[in-house]
Automatic annotation (TrEMBL):
Belongs to the universal ribosomal protein uS17 family. SUPFAM superfamilies: Nucleic acid-binding proteins (SSF50249). It comes from Dentipellis fragilis. Residues 98-109 have a biased composition (Polar residues). InterPro entries: NA-bd_OB-fold, Ribosomal_uS17. This is Nucleic acid-binding protein.
Length: 109
């Protein structure tokens, strides 16, 4: 069984992350939609998960007393995408700075 969820807690336990899996339920009498969620402890062998990552988890034999799921795939990672964008901008700025041989603030007489 595979579930998709959002990483809500990471870094407090080694090789473990908490993933919240949410689902929609329709109330029998009122017909309103409700959000039901459950937290699972997930085994993250490489300690690669970060907060707000969207992940796919899969059940497995018990790893510890409460850990019954392993990480299958990271579907999206906003924090990693942000870091890649910052690194790309820094590389472009460094290339632009090394490409210009004259300082910009020098007055020519």
């Amino acid at each position: 069984m595979s579930l998709s969820g959002l990483v809500t807690k990471v870094g407090f336990m080694n090789k473990t992350a908490t993933v919240t899996v949410s689902r929609w339920v329709v109330h029998k009498q009122t017909g309103k939609r409700l959000i039901r969620s459950k937290k699972f402890l997930v085994h993250d062998e490489m300690n690669q998960l970060r907060m707000e990552d969207s992940v796919l988890i899969q059940n497995c034999p018990p790893i510890s007393a409460r850990k019954r799921f392993t990480l299958r795939k990271v579907t999206s990672s906003p924090e990693a995408e942000r870091e890649e964008a910052h690194a790309r901008l820094a590389a472009e700025a460094a290339a632009a700075a090394s490409g210009s041989s004259q300082p910009e603030n020098v007055a020519h007489a």
